[in-house]
C-alpha cells in the first residue's frame, strides 16, 4: 500500500459515523440497495442492516455479482443481514440506537424536525408497501420527507439520500465530521480490515 493510499484511507476512516445506521426492510430490488449503499458510503455511514423477513433473501453483496450502481461501495461498509424482524430490532437497540422509520401517518414528524445528531437507526421499507406495521410498532418514531407534488412518494434511493444529507448537514454543524483519532474499537477493527493498522 502506498503512503498516499494509506493516508486517504485513514482520512476516510477518521470521519466514519458509527452513531448513525440505516435499515432496509424487505427492499426487493438489489439495485435500489446498491444505490443507497453508495450514498451511505459517501456520507460516512459505516453500518447498514438488510432485513428480509417476508420476501425471499436476495444474494448478498460481495458474492461476485457486482451490482455496478454501487461502485463497489459495499466493500467499504459493514453489512448486517437479518431474516427475523425482532432479532434485527433487538440487535440495533442493544447498541443504544433509537429507530426512526420513514412513514406517512398521523405520528410522523417533518424530516427537518428530527435531531440527527443523536444515535439513530433510519428505517426504510419495501418499494410498494413501505415499512411494515409490525416494524413501525417497534420503532421509537417516524418521519416524512415534506413534498408538495401530487405524487407523495420518492424512490427509496432518493429518499435515503435526502435523509442522509440532512443528517450530514446537522452532524457537520455539530462537528461530528471533524477528523478524530482512530482509537475506538470499531475504528481499530476497520483499520485492520482495510490493512492500514500502524
Textual characterization of the structure:
The protein has 198 residues and is of the alpha/beta class. The protein has 6 helices and 7 strands; from the N terminus they run H-E-H-E-E-H-E-E-E-H-E-H-H. The chain has helices spanning 3-13, 30-42, 85-93, 133-138, 156-173, 185-194, and strands at 20-25, 47-51, 78-82, 98-102, 109-110, 120-124, 141-144. Strands 3-2-1-6-4-7-5 form a 7-stranded parallel beta sheet, sandwiched between helices. The two termini are 12 Å apart.
Please give a handful of descriptors for the protein shown:
198 residues, alpha/beta, Alpha/beta knot, 7-stranded parallel β-sheet, 34% helix, globular
Write the layout of secondary structure elements.
Blueprint: H1 3-13, E1 20-25, H2 30-42, E2 47-51, E3 78-82, H3 85-93, E4 98-102, E5 109-110, E6 120-124, H4 133-138, E7 141-144, H5 156-173, H6 185-194
Parallel strand pairs: 1-2, 1-6, 2-3, 4-6, 4-7, 5-7
Regions with little confidence, pLDDT below 50 for 5+ residues: 64-70
The biggest beta sheet is recorded as: 7 strands, parallel
Total helical segments: 6
Task: Examine the secondary-structure arrangement and name the CATH architecture of the largest domain.
Answer: 3-Layer(aba) Sandwich
Distance between the termini: 12 Å
Lateral strand order in the biggest sheet: 3-2-1-6-4-7-5
Average pLDDT value? Answer: 86
What overall geometry do the principal axes of the alpha carbons give?
A: globular
Q: Would you report the number of β strands?
A: 7
What structural category characterises the helix and strand content?
A: alpha/beta
Beta-strand content: 15-25%
Task: Give the helix proportion (percent range).
Answer: 25-40%
Number of domains: 2
Radius of gyration: 17 Å
Amino acid at each position: 500500500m502506498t503512503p498516499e493510499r494509506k493516508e486517504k484511507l485513514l482520512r476516510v476512516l477518521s470521519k466514519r459515523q458509527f452513531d448513525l445506521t440505516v435499515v432496509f426492510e424487505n427492499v426487493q430490488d438489489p439495485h435500489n440497495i446498491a444505490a443507497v449503499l453508495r450514498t451511505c458510503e459517501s456520507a460516512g455511514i459505516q453500518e447498514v442492516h438488510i432485513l428480509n423477513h417476508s420476501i425471499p433473501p436476495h444474494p448478498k453483496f460481495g458474492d461476485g455479482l457486482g451490482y455496478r450502481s454501487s461502485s463497489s461501495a459495499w466493500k467499504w461498509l459493514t453489512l448486517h443481514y437479518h431474516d427475523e424482524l425482532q432479532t434485527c430490532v433487538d440487535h440495533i437497540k442493544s447498541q443504544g440506537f433509537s429507530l426512526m422509520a420513514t412513514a406517512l401517518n398521523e405520528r410522523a414528524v417533518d424530516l427537518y424536525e428530527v435531531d440527527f445528531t443523536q444515535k439513530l437507526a433510519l428505517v426504510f421499507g419495501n418499494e410498494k408497501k413501505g415499512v411494515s406495521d409490525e416494524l413501525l410498532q417497534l420503532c421509537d418514531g417516524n418521519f416524512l420527507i415534506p413534498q408538495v407534488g401530487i405524487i407523495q412518494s420518492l424512490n427509496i434511493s432518493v429518499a435515503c439520500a435526502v435523509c442522509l444529507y440532512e443528517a450530514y448537514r446537522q452532524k457537520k454543524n455539530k462537528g461530528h465530521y471533524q477528523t478524530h483519532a482512530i482509537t475506538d474499537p470499531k475504528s481499530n477493527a476497520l483499520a485492520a480490515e482495510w490493512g492500514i493498522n500502524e
